[in-house]
Amino acid sequence: MALPLEFDPGLPLSLSETSLAFEYGPGVFGPEHEMRRLDAIRPSLLDPQCSGPDPVYGIAMDVGRESEREMLTERMLLFGAVVYAAGRLGAEPVRSQGHVHAIAPHSGWSPPEVFEIWSGKAIIYAQQWADDAPGRCIAVEAGPGDQVVVPPGWAHCVINADPGSEMSFGAWCDRQYGFDYTGVRAHRGLAWFPLLTASGGIEWQRNPHYSQSTLEQHGPRAYPELGLDAGRSLYRQFVDDPESVMFVAEPQRAAAVWPAFVP
């Protein structure tokens, strides 16, 4: 039996009741889900030896309608769908490992990523650099229907902020996506670790392997400078106007925006 999403992504998708996966509706294409195992993300956790759900999350890269498949390929765009397990990873909530997007050969840029939460409660954490000085460190709390943009070159991860339930989201990515873990793993994680409190909330602990930094926390915002419409799902925006998300595959289109950009 399939479970409905809390937010309509503009695609007939539903959550599997038995696994960390989506069920594809009529006219939707998508791959077999890849299950991200706990061992794969241990290097960036506060306690690499912790126990927790395994797999941690399921991911389907390259999802869409058959009617848009050719256009997605031509435009070097990729739409991903991800579902996170409930639970905790030691003292931390369920999350991905931190990474920076590798340079996409076709554009010469580290691509941005646009997230849209479909169910549950999420935090998108991002920092400017994966160097000793991490620069600005920002945590954005988001719920169903909220959109969050991580700009080019920023290290980031996605967190399931509610240990009592699964969390799911979609994301626009570059078709030549790749992950660079070098800087994050060299510093034994990102600059701030999310910790679960006794009441189920989140508090943050600074990673001492970076120089001093301040964590900024806020909710989602609109992105008029990128032309995104917070009132429509990300996939629907692409269908209505394919140019509206082309800054993902061609970050140079927003070159004037990125230097002062705040997720």
Short description:
It contains 4 helices and 21 strands. By secondary structure, it is mostly beta strands. The chain has one domain: Sandwich (Jelly Rolls).
CATH superfamily: Jelly Rolls
The residue ranges in which pLDDT falls below 50 over 5 or more consecutive positions are: none
Into which percentage range does the β-strand content fall?
25-35%
The mean pLDDT is: 97
The secondary-structure element order is EEEEEHEEHEEEEEEEEEEEHEEEH
Task: State the domain count.
Answer: 1
Radius of gyration: 17 Å
Number of helices: 4
Query: What's the arrangement of strands in the largest beta sheet?
Result: 5-6-8-17-12-15
The oligomeric state of the chains shown is single chain
At the fold tier of CATH, the topology name is Jelly Rolls
Fraction of residues in helix: under 10%
Major sheet size, sense and barrel closure = 6 strands, antiparallel
Q: Using DSSP, what is the number of strands?
A: 21
The helix-and-strand class reads: mainly beta
